[in-house]
Predict the 3D structure of the following.
Amino acid sequence: MKKIIIILILFLVVSMLSLVPARADGLLNPTDDTYVDINDPNPTTPPGKDGYSLLTDYSTFPSFVVTRRVYLRFDISTLLGDASSGSLLRLHIIKAPFNTIGNLALWSTGDDWNGGTAGNGDETTLTWNNAPAPIVKLDTQPAGALGANIEFSSAALITYINSQRIANGGDNVISFMVQWDSCTTCGFFDNITFEDRENFGGSGKPPELVLIGPTAVVVSSFEATPNFSDINVTWETVFETNLIGFNLFRSSDPDIKGTQLNTDLIPAKVFGQPIGENYLFIDTSFQPGNTYYYRLETVDRFGQKEEYGPVPVDASYTLYLPFLKN
């Protein structure tokens, strides 16, 4: 009888866990990626399959004309929640224009590559003539330099990703197109080369789609410890994908936010990365003999802020150590 009860309990626990929705945060690489070239509309060797990485370029003769487009497609079927806290598309540059200043645009585009059904296109036979057209411009970003990451992130991008989820009436397929949007200083036949999913040149940085869901935790710990002459305020992050920095506040009243201790924003150490870091702020501006309350404020790239704390600290036994000069 006891064994039967234990089995029933385990069955109920497993059933309850199966009802918990998967988190929306995660990092995905493309299922398909390629490029098309207007100067070679029907190539013998399909673009993106000729041993090179993804390319995007333009020509300035006789005028600004986009001559190459990059296409990327992602499968988000493993992500069941909305990416409501943020998302970004990251492309790593292995070749950059020598004398070009301009912007690249990220567009949503159709899933029917080469006339296929949603999610069943063919990157090996995609050409300029049969490639899907751009639909909605999601973001623009500066072209960047060699070794840098171009990161597209906007409210429109999040809206597009969420709309493609099956739960929201979509098909779980996300298709992007990247091309030059504008240039202020344009060279002749300059181009940018991105890593692709097959041949990422030893850098280990193929295209990445990063999503952060509503349950993603940015700060996992936040503590304050008094010492003889200062108070060490420490915290640890889990995700810094959209995080740009922190503000730290101190008050003698737990219900008041108090004084901001940092003059400038404390920058995120691994900005744009789906990983975390450890932080230390040494507070020496307090008055010993009091109890203080610390609050930590995170600031993301969308201007959204989240507060952690208050964390109380008893500074009754904290002393200032005099500086002795010989």
User: Anything to note?
Assistant: The domain at 219-314 is CATH 2.60.40.10 (Immunoglobulin-like). The chain has two domains: 22-212, 219-314.
